[in-house]
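Open question from group meeting: does this chain pack into something compact, or does most of it stay loose? Before anyone orders reagents, we agreed to write out a predicted structure and look at it together. Recording both the input and the output here so the notebook holds the full record.
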Amino acid sequence: MGFPLRLIKQSMSASKLNDSTISAELIRALRQVIGAEGVLTAFSDRMVFECDGFTIEKECPDVVVFPRTTDQIAAVVSLCNQYEVPFLPRGAGTSLAGGTLAVGGGVMLVLTRMNEILEINLRDRYAIVEPGVVNIRLTQSLQGSGYHYAPDPSSQSACTIGGNVATNSGGPHTLKYGVTVNHILGLEFVTAAGEIVTVGGPGGTCSGLDITGVLVGSEGTLAIVSKVWVRLTRNPQSVRTMLAVFDSVADCTTAISAIIGAGIIPAALEMIDHDIMVALEEAFEFGFPLDAEAVLIIEVDGIDAGLDDQRDRIVRLCLDNGARDVQQAEDEKQRQHLWRARKQAFGAIGRLSSSLVTQDGVVPRTQLPYIYEKIMEIGEKHDIRIVNVFHAGDGNIHPVMLFDERDASQIQRVLKAGGEILEACLEVGGSVTGEHGIGVEKMHFMKKMFTPEDLEVMSALRNAFNPENNLSPNKMLPVAGACGMERKHPSRMVAT
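Structure tokens returned:
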């Protein structure tokens, strides 16, 4: 089908405008710091970075640089401040909320060349990594050691540790092991003023303010992370992984509530609906029962003693709540087979539509049956096909809306549907994000989630780190950015 001509023209127009804002003097200075090969100025090169996983909104950075050291990051930041140009960090670009959109242009620092695992210390259970290290590479480096890095987002094979820190990513095993912030011991970062600072370390933050906790999840609006101390987790002694098959999504979501209500905390509890199973089968032939409406991937782990009893309780609860079958992975190969299916779900959805938007909300687990029905009702209302994969154990929903971005009316319907889904999450006491962040997509929801006083505190915190708002401007908080860069985003236009 090719790239939509409309979008090419828009990007080219924006590019011409943006080019005039970056002086040749600044570009020469950036090349002196980074090296000519690490500075991109041609439109055809920069266009690759015009959006992240949230593809509805696009805006090219004026310049893209690839630093290899913390000192280079600091030098680039200092130059941007000197020339009064906004700047922002980016990892692999797997953000699904526009967190790495170059609002207002400026200089984008892509950190993927800072990809070294600097130290693995099994005795003290930590590793030191650069922000561009791909998540799964760290776990692969630990194979055979008896340890692993617990956060495992669905984009694990592509996303970077720095990006995980920015969005406080979770993943299927969040239910038991927590999100990224629970596994970060310390950070080295470059401030918005270009100063290099280290907080925490191998022992974590033992006293004073938890600056590490403040920075994790701040989406690159407070500082640029250049080094990360991560906690390593001992592998469980034993694991039981099951696949429960349901003839209705309602039964599946009821079973989820029943498992948690029984006081069982699985390591993972993931739901996949029928349409995603079809896409997975077409792509990979995993062997899913295509006459089922939903399946539940359930995993429990820990010491071997008593684990079979826990498994048996889960099986009974699933069968009592409508499961027609519950199968257990017979060995590690089968277990990995199931998890590959789950991790490849989003990639397989590309077979269903040319464009998609993945929403990210949270509801109390008891509200999962309600929110699923609401999602499908909203999809029907706006004539948008929606497929679903849930981090069901912690109430984190991921409805995926399928559309064609060449059709402006479809874009508007998708944005309206996504907004109504998030409104429904709020109505039942949930949140508009579980792990994807706020970015530019959900800024207008911040006023609905928080009081003016709450937002004032958040703004004061941001201003303490980023007083000029030149680092990742126009993200997260619904306030005007510096340098006259306030703009209308499609998602915000729909909401007003």
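Observations to bring back to the group:
The longest helix spans residues 408-427.
DSSP finds 18 helices and 19 strands in the chain.
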